[in-house]
Amino acid sequence: MLHHERLRPPSHDYPADEWNVVENAFHPEFLAQLETMLALGNGYLGMRGCPEEGGPKAENGTFINGFYETRPIIYGEEAYGFAKTGQTICNVTDSKIIKLFVDDEPFWLPDAHLLNYDRRLNMKAGTLDREILWETPSGKQVSIRSRRLVSFVNRHVAAISYCVTILNAQASVVISSEMTANEHGTGGNEDDPRLARAFPGRVLHQRASYSKDRRIVLCHATEKSRFTLACATDNALESSCPYSYKVAHTGDFGQVAFTIEAQPGCPIQLTKYMVYHTSQTASSEQLCGRAEWTMDRVMSQGFQTLLASQEHYMDDFWHRSDVRIRDIREDRTKRSTIEVQQAIRFNLFHILQASARAEDTGVAAKGLTGQAYEGHYFWDTEIYLLPFLTYTSPRIARNLLAFRYKMLPQARARAKELGHRGAMFPWRTISGEEASAYYAAGTAQYHINADIMYALRKYVQATGDESFLRDYGAEMLVETARLWADLGFYSDAKGGKFCINGVTGPDEYNAVVNNNAYTNLMARENLRYAAQVVEFLRKTEPDAYNSLVHKTALEPSEATAWTRAAENMYVPYDEKLEIIPQDDSFLNREPWDFQNTPRDRYPLLLFYHPLNIYRKRVIKQADVVLAMFLLGDAIPPKMKKRNFDFYDPLTTGDSSLSSCVEAIIAAQTGDMDKAIRYGMAALLMDLADVGGNVKDGCHIASMGGTWMMLTYGFGGMRDSDGMLSFWPRRAPEENAILRFPLIYRGQMLEIEIGLDKVEYVLREGERLVVRHEMEEVELTRENPLAVRPVSRGLTI
Ligand code: BGC
Fold first, then answer.
1. From the CA of 250, how far away is ligand 1's center (Å)?
2. Which residues contribute to the annotated binding site for substrate?
3. 396 — phi, psi (to 5°)?
């Protein structure tokens, strides 16, 4: 099932552009959505796209990844092992405010008479740019040009270049550069479980506040999680117009107000630098000191240096990651192609913004674009984001996997608490502790353990990073394999097969079920891979093996038990329908009455009690269909088709994690029409607000899914057997050419899928063998190019 685009901004005000998301008129009705779409971030620091003036705003937000406050989770009725502590990402000090007054009249977008308005998310440079021509009530024309960036290279730093020129008159101008903390941003609707809960009272407690000339430092700390935050701003003003300034600050507020006697045509250039440092161990004094060191450094370098490093970073990113689409007729002006290109880049750019400098943290479901889902990390990272990162920015992928490794102590403790052996990763968390307050759609999603191991395997295969596997991965494998071995059992009722009961699969509309097929299939992989790696280390790296045994108290018999469980894993199969039932009870459920469910009753989770949903045959998001993608080799093509035909009409797509996967399987099973429709829904999830909640933040998983949809779906890429292979799919009437790079084992491959041929180019590296359809193709530095014809009609 497909939802439809909800956001239909007039195209003349939001023109399609390959490299920019452009807004050419101020539309208050799209304020909230644009705050999300035009948010800037670097994986550590994120700022929603509010105007410089600090308003108007729907939900202003500044976030630091991993900076959260805790609260006790209150249950009406307690039970053993429920998660106890909620964690919510904090809305931290907003430092980006720059207010403008001309002859004492404030510049305020909703009231201003605008002669020109252009705001754009510049995805090539990594900046948010704005150009405005404002005519004041007394007829003075004021040009305001600004560029905002959150630096990828200096992750603690953001900056704004803000230039005001009165074009046609003299004027008295005030530019007030401000910062404010404890501004309440959570417009939490308590009825929507996806949104963050508001904290009563203040979250950031004042620790220090001081100024030095035009520099202001505000320092705050959270009470329970014991984080400290130092936020510093500094302001450089250049102008030949005479000016003076005043500085003021309180515990929660800072202001440097410049009063300028503006001359016609004489630019007033303010550069505002913003620095954030956070820590759970450093004192306020130490942290303020760090913020000042960083500030001294960036101020001495200046805005142009910051901008140049940002552009350089972006060039490198696009070189490694850009997916290009081109119309065969070379008609670059065709709006639909440009729109698709824009949407592709928008998705990839936001993934970068969510993850680039996420060092020692995960990636939140909304990145740093909103507070929804409380800033928590889910399986979204491993299953939806890591494939893109592994193949384009392996360093980021490694950081994210290393972060999971850091959680291992808490995962071990959680397994113990629930009476399991091994380790049990939290369904949702920031700190590493389980934070899901609703176990049926939370803790019960044991599959996250196998998901993380799946991503690990993919990462190791694609990068050849065996040291990571040896030093960190193996330990996680042992502990997760133990979990599965402990959780499952050999069931007489199922012919002695290894069964896993009482879990929730990816589809949260069928909770706490027995033998969820996705879970069993992924657990099987986890068990197999763990046994394989342990055996490999035992045979080839005795020191590493001994250290693993030491760290995990591994018994020699364990790997054999894992292999046995994997080989005997129960995978549900229905003889009559010849499909894989989602779980033991799925086919027994009464079909959901889709016909009499009005469109405005979706997502179902907001309108029906969970029991009404759980007892029916209705699906929130791809589950068996996802398993068919991730473990494609385990399922024969014909069965894939039957499964897809069966599950597709039952899938509401109430989760944004669904469309991209459905597009891939539709492409694989040859339904190109559906593949394109689902693909477009995934691609436009945020730009066209397909899910209706982009105001709350970007759907980062779906964004990663769009890359998978293009590469694995339309590119027909496979990587499960240690070699990259391609079997491109395309719709006969489509004219588009798709081109994308991949980094495989340190070499860069570029693939272009044309109408009837595929071009493989080894851009960087010595030698790479890939498979095209059934044939192995060798690419070398001397012969880097191979062109092969595409055959049609095959399903894989
Ligand atoms: C989905 C989960 C997902 C979470 C965060 C939920 O709606 O059902 O699979 O992990 O959102 O994106």
1. 40
2. 379-380, 620-621
3. -65, -40
Which has the closest alpha carbon to 448: 513, 393, 377?
Answer: 377
Distance between Cα 377 and ligand 1 center (Å): 10
Q: Whose CA is nearest to atom 6 of ligand 1?
A: 655
pLDDT value at residue 481 = 98
Q: Name the residue of 445, 508, 619 whose CB sits within 8 Å of the most ligand 1 atoms, as the mutation to test its pocket.
A: 508
- Cα separation, 551 vs 475, in Å, equals 8
Please tell me the distance from the alpha carbon of residue 5 to that of residue 472, in angstroms, as a whole number.
43
CATH of residue 186's domain is 2.70.98.40
pLDDT tens-digit readout, 493-544: 999 999 999 999 999 999 999 999 999 999 999 999 999 999 999 999 999 9
The protein residue with its alpha carbon nearest to ligand 1, atom 7, reads 655
Q: Which atom of ligand 1 sits closest to the CA of residue 380?
A: 10
CA atoms of 758 and 751, how far apart (whole Å): 7
**201 domain residue, yes or no:** yes
Give the pocket of ligand 1 (CB within 6 Å).
Answer: 365, 373, 378-380, 506, 508, 620-621, 655, 657, 701
Q: Are 772 and 618 in contact (CB under 8 A)?
A: no
Per-residue confidence (pLDDT) for residue 795, from 0 to 100: 44
pLDDT of residue 548: 98
Give the residue numbers marked as catalytic.
Answer: 508
Q: Residues 106-153: pLDDT tens digits?
A: 999 999 999 999 999 999 999 999 999 999 999 999 999 999 999 999
Q: Which of 81-85, 617-621, 634-638 has the lowest mean pLDDT?
A: 634-638
3-state secondary structure 165-234: EECCCCEEEEEEEEEECCCCCCCCCCCCCCCCCCCCCCCCEEEEEEEECCEEEEEEECCCCCCEEEEEEE
- Model-level pTM? 0.96
For 332-359, write each residue's pLDDT tens digit: 556 688 999 999 999 999 999 999 999 9
Give the residue, out of 656, 657, 686, with the most ligand 1 atoms within 8 A of its beta carbon, to mutate for a pocket test.
657
Indicate the pLDDT class of residue 188, thresholds 50, 70 and 90. low
Using an 8 Å Cβ cutoff, are 356 and 42 in contact?
yes
Asked if residue 434 is part of any domain, the answer here is: no
Beta-carbon contacts of residue 461 (< 8 Å; ≥ 6 apart): 719, 722
Distance 661 CA to ligand 1 centre (A): 14
Closest residue by Cα to atom 1, ligand 1, is 655
Is 467 inside any structural domain? no
The residues facing 692 across adjacent strands are: none
Report yes or no: 517 and 592 within 8 Å, Cβ to Cβ: no
* Banded model confidence at residue 73, pLDDT cuts 50, 70, 90: very high
Of 373, 384, 428, the residue with max ligand 1 atoms within 8 A of its CB, to mutate for a pocket test, comes to 373
Domain for residue 343, yes or no? no
* Cα–Cα distance measured from residue 592 to residue 98, given in angstroms and rounded to the nearest whole number: 53
User: What one-character DSSP code corresponds to residue 95?
Assistant: E
Whether residue 279 contacts residue 287, with contact meaning beta carbons closer than 8 Å, is answered with yes
Contacts of 105 (CB under 8 A, 6+ apart): 136, 137, 138
**Residue range 272-300, pLDDT digits in tens:** 999 999 999 999 999 999 999 999 999 99
Instruction: Compute the distance from residue 227 Cα to the ligand 1 centre, in Å.
Output: 27
Whose alpha carbon is nearest atom 9 of ligand 1? 506
- Domain with 301, as residue range(s), is 38-311
Q: Where are the beta strands (DSSP E) in 601-706?
A: 616-617
| Closest atom of ligand 1 to CA, residue 655 | 7
Backbone angles phi, psi at 213, to 5 degrees: 50, -120
Number of domains in the chain: 1
Instruction: Using the mean position of ligand 1's atoms as its centre, give its distance from the Cα of residue 657 in Å.
Output: 7
The predicted structure's pLDDT at residue 796: 43
Q: 722 pLDDT band (50/70/90 cuts)?
A: confident
Q: Is 295 left (phi over 0), alpha (psi -120 to 50) or beta?
A: alpha
